[in-house]
Amino acid sequence: MDYPVLLEAAEAAARATTGRGHVADYIPALAEADPEAFGMAVATVDGELYGVGDWEQPFSVQSVSKLFSLALALAYSSDGGEELWRGVGREPSGNPFNSLVQLETEHGIPRNPFINAGALVVTDRLQSLTGDASGAVREFLRRESGNPLLDTDPVVAASEAAHGHRNAALAHFIASHGNLQNPVETVLEHYYAHCAIATSCRDLVLAGAFLARYGVRTDGTRLMTRSEAKRINAVLLTCGTYDAAGEFAFRVGLPGKSGVGGGVLAILPGRAAICAWGPRLDQAGNSVAAVTALDTLTTLSGCSVF
Ligand code: DON
């Protein structure tokens, strides 16, 4: 695949979406992002790295971090994830990422690990397994990307906490059903801390490439079995972009995870990790420019999981 040519075409298509969508502002600190920024990067399983535009510029990882918290919670669990999957489902929710409605009728067990409710449960289990859930995510991202400066942005974390009524409501509701092992305050603190990590397309493709390598880390060691990596990719495909997961599969055809910082990390199993970033979001909370760029890349190359 001629990645430099594909990235150039993807960037042109993404830049043509200028003006469409809105920068997230329900977390006030995110509203300061440059709406016209755009970057994209590819890391292949053979160690090649390509980028265009603002691919090395840090942005708020937000929900893309949920991919890593899930992977680590599964990797560290000693029962193949059985306990974790009792507390969180793996079905698309068809609802917005911060919705509360299904929890009430579904006994405090969130539909999947990528909606906010499910990610809170995953953060809770990772906290039980490691004693420092956000630190575990940060350390993994640093190691895989080789970027020792990668860190939580305290201003974004504080902004999330100050405006986190919905997440607090979700966490308390889940706790009322006995589905949290740690205090609500601890879970929220670590959840905000991993969502508020500042990272770039470059860092994210390097950190996400373990899924393209079927579970093998940058240093050649195995984080998880091939079957576990397949399972994460499957949940990414069906739930990673929330109530737009069908549309994302239709357009892009890859497992992927979006965040309200505007990043989308997608996996081409056996070949590469691809990340695109643009802060303007559509109604489902997915980046307009990033989804367009990924759509262009898979459409032009003919490479997807289908
Ligand atoms: O909890 C929140 O609302 C944010 N920290 C993360 C939400 C998010 O990124 C949803 N993704 N599109």
From TrEMBL:
Catalytic activity: L-glutamine + H2O = L-glutamate + NH4(+)
MF GO annotations: glutaminase activity
UniProt binding sites for substrate: S63, N116, E160, N167, Y191, Y242, V260
Entry keyword set: Acetylation, Hydrolase
InterPro entries: Beta-lactam/transpept-like (IPR012338), Glutaminase (IPR015868)
Signal peptide location: none
Record GO biological process: glutamate biosynthetic process; L-glutamine catabolic process
Enzyme Commission number(s) from the entry: 3.5.1.2
Presence of the UniProt keyword Repeat in the record: no
Family: Belongs to the glutaminase family.
Assembly and oligomerization: Homotetramer.
Name by which UniProt lists this protein: Glutaminase
Originating gene: glsA
